[in-house]
Amino acid sequence: MAWNFECRQPHEEKYGCFQNTYRVKGESSPKTSYIYLGSEETTVKILSDLALKPLSDEENITYSGEVILEKVANSLNFENILFEYAKDKRASKALKNTIILMALFNASKRKLFMKILSNSILRESTDFKYLEEVYWFMDMVYEHLGDILYDLIKAARSKYKIDLKYLVVDASRFKVYKDEETGLIKFGYPAQKRKDLPQVNVFLGVNKQQIPFFVSTHPGNTSDIEMFDNFLKTMRSKYPLLNKIPRKIIIMDQGNVNKDTINGNPEIT
Q: pTM higher than 0.70 for the full model?
């Protein structure tokens, strides 16, 4: 069972402790364990420090997540797949470890490399000479995102139970802008509506388990119909595995659902 905090006062002075009640096999009465924290004043200081101060060593906190995700990535030959497109071993290893950390921490890239990476067990094998290198490494594989994802799916099918009954595809868009308060680059839509901001279109397909099977990016002025058409052509010519999925569900905005659109794409049913 979980540990619960408790404040006790057996005598005049209160003290804080963690309490855990558990049962021993073969015994009817439950047992209780206590971790004594100290007087009321000391307990408040301890809990405040835990809540407000950063840990001196975060490795013990993130260790399990990093190890598990690294093993999953290695089981899919993720680093080798990245190398196939980046043609750079140092970049491939750094990108693999960066993606692992981004899956664990909701942080900006700058915070990820300046603070989180330095406390990670992956820091020794993630070779960045300076922060800007990560953007160069990402540029190496940007144009091959769909191919990388497809290679990962093929590798995952040989090791894990991947559902192939449904494929749900949808187009979305977001803007790229600089936050006025923090000065950081953000993605999405700012509170103030601005038409002058650069926009990126993303086309994504996922299966029933919400595992991405297909991804492509397009300039901000690309119409949904053009992205749908690109998806159908790419699926037929480059990604035969997607053809084996019997049900493909395309999510379209109301403005795109008309006779001309449907008739122009006979594969949309």
A: no
Domain boundary assignment for the chain? 4-52, 59-142, 164-264
The position carrying tokens 């963690």 is 18
Residues 60, 66: Cα–Cα separation, whole Å: 10
SS3 (DSSP) at 247: strand
Q: For residue range 143-163, list pLDDT tens digits in order.
A: 899 999 999 999 998 888 888
Closest of 211, 212, 210 to residue 202, by C-alpha: 212
Instruction: Please report the beta strands in the chain, taking only residues with DSSP state E, as ranges in sequence order.
Output: 4-8, 15-22, 31-39, 166-178, 185-188, 199-206, 212-219, 247-251
Query: Is the distance from CB of 93 to CB of 81 less than 8 angstroms?
Result: no
Dihedral of CA atoms 216, 266, 151, 207 in degrees, nearest 10, equals: 90
